[in-house]
Amino acid sequence: MTRTLKLIAPIAVLSALAVPSFAQDAAIDINGDGMYSYPELQAVMPEMSEDDFTVLDTSGDGLLDADEIAVATEAGLLPA
User: CA-to-CA distance for 70 and 21, rounded, in angstroms?
Assistant: First the structure.
């Protein structure tokens, strides 16, 4: 193995591990911040109420982060 390849291989592995296992849907995450806001979700899921969103937003910060999105997706509450 060349020296360059020996240096690049660990970086590639670490980069792959750093990517979250759940990728947000670009059709929902319009601003690309990695989180879903209520207006972003309501645009693709008009039936979602603010109360429904509040239940999913377990941190209460007004945004669904990757963990909250994953839990809601696994529960069938958000599109996969």
Answer: 9
- Inter-residue contact 59 to 65 (CB < 8 Å): yes
Burial 9-32 (b: 16+ CB within 10 A, else e): eeeeeeeeeeeeeeebeeebbeee
SS3 48: coil
Contacts of 42 (CB under 8 A, 6+ apart): 48, 53
pLDDT digits (tens, 9 = 90+) for 2-36: 554 454 545 444 433 333 434 578 889 999 999 99
What is the maximal distance between C-alpha atoms in the chain? 57
